Amino acid sequence: MSGFSTTAIILRRVEYGDYDFILTLFSRDRGKISAIAKSAQKSKRRFGGILELFSLLEIEVGSSRSGGLLILKEAVSRNLFSNIRSDIKKTAYACYWTELINLWLEEGNTHPALYEVFGYVLEQLDRAGIDEEPLSILFQMRFLSIAGLKPNFESCANCRRPTADIDASMVFLSLSAGGVICPSCSGSRSANMKLSKGTIKLLQWMDGGDITKAGRIRFSAAEQKESLLFLESFIPYHIGREPKSLKFLKNYRRGPL
Amino acid sequence: MLHHPKSIINLIRNLGRLPGIGEKTAERLALHILNNPSAQAQQLALSITHMKESVRLCRKCFGYSDHELCTICGVVSRNTALLCVVEQPADMTSIEKSGGYNGLYFILGGVLAPMDGVGPEHIRIGELMKRVERGEVKEVILATGTHVEGESTSAYLAQVLRGYPVTVSRIASGVPVGGDLKYVDQVTLKKAMEKRHAVE
Lengths: 257, 200
What we know:
Strand content of chain B: 5-15%
Order of helices and strands of chain B: HHHEEEHEHEHEH
Number of helices of chain B: 7
Largest sheet of chain B: 4 strands, parallel
CATH architecture of the largest domain in chain A: Up-down Bundle
Largest interface: A-B, 34 and 29 residues
Structural class of chain B: alpha/beta
Number of strands of chain B: 6
CATH superfamily of the largest domain in chain A: Recombination protein O, C-terminal domain
Largest sheet of chain A: 5 strands, mixed, barrel
Number of domains of chain B: 2
Distance between the termini of chain A: 48 Å
Helix content of chain A: 25-40%
CATH class of the largest domain in chain B: Alpha Beta
Oligomer: heterodimer
Order of helices and strands of chain A: EEEHEEHHHHEEEHHH
CATH topology of the largest domain in chain A: de novo design (two linked rop proteins)
Helix content of chain B: 40-55%
CATH architecture of the largest domain in chain B: 3-Layer(aba) Sandwich
Number of helices of chain A: 8
Number of domains of chain A: 2
Shape of chain B: globular
């Protein structure tokens, strides 16, 4: 891979030796990439304060002679989302989304739709356009859809009976079946969660509605709580592990210390 | 390296494990030790083992100390109403070297890092609260790093300290003294403009 320029968001920054950083970046044009930022720990002049988590950068990278890690040659900040880092709750949510993307994405695959959603939620989080909880619901629903892990809300995952025909306000869901389970099948499949039909409609809107109008969607406290509980159980189950920052977030919700 | 006797190779390997020391530097250091009087080598070895045996954490600030209280907490002339919270002992040393602070310190032992699984229970936030509860401290200066984890830890501490009768402040960010504005990075410059102060 020869040199190229793109916009990218920093997913991870690891100190490498005494001078360098190894960055994991989510780029618009190349998907997930790793690059070394030489002397970035010591020299503040070259990358001065912009190689931080969630920073949206305009980057220029080149390949090394040995064909190993890409080398970050230049970086200009487009948005550092400074308000996120000065708020622990915002930081915890941004870390969760970032870790989720980092866990799921494989290097070399581009995902412009996910890149756009990620950029959008970070921007909204930074300027407090939408509250953290609905924003997280929005991100998680879109993430599931893009990752091909979208929960089946339309019909029973076992017998295909339409959800609309289920005569109950609360609907059973099974993590292993990947969606709704009707009352007659709930014995045969492990139906371990419940959602109201109203919450399901809101979740469907968050997945398919006009993202620029997401701020207008109002969740009641109960709808918000059950949405987060469902999504934060569904995603770790289907990606095969619980992100560390999700554990942090759950602890934070219980109250600081 | 292989042409050296086994004992020298052994020392080179051990020195090479130190941060910032590669094989060539380790070899140079080993040969330097070899070529100097035995007394010097013994002194070096003794000072390393003595340090490992005697250094512990200060009971009050959790900095390094040879005694129960460190050389800062044990000094009566320091301003006990000021408490500067830093991430690591090295940060305390940097502030001390600046000569611009006469209060006491508290070493957190890290910062909150959600993606690394570091939560409030993994650093000394509980101990900090206990220290503040004792009532002597009037101002807590949050001097964690200005990276994402440092800033968010500072925000978290400000939140948990809200219920205590103390002033909470954050160290300033700005243009380095003697610096030329054209070489200052945009983030620092932006902060310097935002936090500008009136000239008396």
